[in-house]
Amino acid sequence: MASNNLVDIFRVISQELDARNDKTERIVKLSRDITIESKRTISLLQRSQLQSTAERLATFQKAEYNLARVRKNNFYKLARELENESPFYFNRSYTFGLQEYIEAISFLYYLQKGTLIAHKEVQRSLVFQDVGNPGEKRPNEISSDGKGNTPENNNSVVKDISEKKRISVHVSQHDYILGLMDLTGELMRATINANPVESIQFVQDTNNFLQLVYQGSLALYGYRTKELSRKMSTLLSSVLKIESYVYSLKIRELDTFGGALTTKPIFVDAFGDQQNRHYNDDYDSGTD
Amino acid sequence: MAEQSVGTSFAEYQDFYNAEQETREKIRETTREIEKGLKSVIGVLQGIHQDVSSPHLKLTTEKCRGILSENVKPLFGNLNEKVPAGEYFRYHDNWKFLTTKLSFACALICYLETDLVANRETIASMLGLTIDPKAANIYLDMEDYLQGLLQMTTELARFSVNCVAKGDVRRPRKIFKVMSDLQQGFSELNLKNDHLRRMFDGLKYDVKKVEQVIYDITIRGLDSPQQLKPAEESAQ
């Protein structure tokens, strides 16, 4: 019953342990790449606040492209690594990359649609068709290699998965809610950066949105994890910042015109730049 | 629109969280029971330090095996039903302590019976577990097994001291053999800088302790054939 051969025991274990550790390393590396790309996309979107409508649409397209590339290059490989593994074992190795991605995709979603991306939509974006070639091959290059019988022009990874094998990166509700907390910080910055005259609607909407998120997060009181608690106190400070910003805009509006900001475009020409600068300095301490 | 989407997201999270807590609570009901079995096994095993004679050791291991098969094995079957398939690591922290400590106990029992280190399959079967993650919802993870082995070396170092104190001067050499084999085995693993690694770093102190015991015996010639009286030949 007990094996005499310790060498045998440790040989088997050594292989298994190495495989597990190597996989963890690869996953951490992928996660780091995802973080970098997502952060870049977020900065890109932050800059869109000062752009004209046309420029902004181009920026959104660029951001969409970036995120699609992250999915194709990094998340697809991650999904392959996680295939037949417990996502819960490796979760701590990729959760930071995933949270950053959720932050980026939800930021873009909010700027485009003014609302929150649902958990299932985030999850849906990370489902891929397995093309059966580890590592190197990208999901939409399959048509060129003889292995998969995939139809030509299969550009969208998510589309047309029908009877093919699916692989995915599991997005847990924890990851999603933590990513959502990060989103609020970005929205606070975006609001402060926005032109208070042209984007007054955006400023007010986002103020409301952040208040809603804070209100929602209060319901989680009592079952916060350590990480969530930390992010929730950041959320509160973002909410307070944005509230006092909206307040000061209102005061200034009343001081200057005694009326609605949006109906007085002259304001932009006369004071716009200087005033903006002033508020940026005051409130936007978080920018890099 | 925003109001609705935010509301939905938080409601979903709450449902998810509550469901997770519920599963955890069910798991805890069973792990608390397993803990009782574990405590009595550990308690019985402590007896080896008082009486090192072979008949007593045999009695001890038999008693432990009885507790394991009656009070622990069925409970793991029970636990297996409560853990959702494929979610071992989601709830692992609820029983990691138990599987580690029970691995230790089983490894020690096997060692006392055979003077050998038991492999993972053997220990898993003593607990009614498998080692194949695909065969069951709960199994004996490699890291828990390794930690159990390292806990055993600490216990064996203490045991070697007590063997001599109770008159068995032969056993420490056997213990030393198995401990240096284990040390050799562990040193071939590429350990990460984690808990297991730190436990392995402690192994050398256990080995040193046994070396000291052997030194004390040897320098006094206590284990030379002339010195050994028949009565002291307790180990087989």
UniProtKB/TrEMBL annotation, chain A:
Keyword Magnesium among record annotations: yes
UniProt GO molecular function: metal ion binding; sequence-specific DNA binding
Annotated region described as Disordered, given as residue ranges: 131-156
Keywords: Magnesium, Metal-binding
One Pfam family matching this protein: Translin
Entry's transmembrane regions: none
Bias kind Polar residues: ranges: 141-156
Entry annotated with the keyword Metal-binding: yes
Domain of life: Eukaryota
Name this protein carries in UniProt: Translin
UniProtKB/TrEMBL annotation, chain B:
Pfam families xref list: Translin
GO biological process: one example: RNA metabolic process
Presence of the UniProt keyword Plastid in the record: no
Keywords: Cytoplasm, DNA-binding, Magnesium, Metal-binding, Nucleus, RNA-binding
InterPro entries the record matches: Translin, Translin_fam
Subcellular location: Cytoplasm; Nucleus
CDD domains per record: Translin
A GO cellular component entry from the record: nucleus
Statement: the UniProt record of this protein carries the keyword DNA damage: no
GO molecular function: metal ion binding; RNA binding; sequence-specific DNA binding; single-stranded DNA binding
Its biological purpose: DNA-binding protein that specifically recognizes consensus sequences at the breakpoint junctions in chromosomal translocations, mostly involving immunoglobulin (Ig)/T-cell receptor gene segments. Seems to recognize single-stranded DNA ends generated by staggered breaks occurring at recombination hot spots. Exhibits both single-stranded and double-stranded endoribonuclease activity. May act as an activator of RNA-induced silencing complex (RISC) by facilitating endonucleolytic cleavage of the siRNA passenger strand.
PANTHER family the UniProt entry points to: TRANSLIN AND TRANSLIN ASSOCIATED PROTEIN X (PTHR10741)
Entry's family note: Belongs to the translin family.
Name of the protein this chain belongs to: Translin
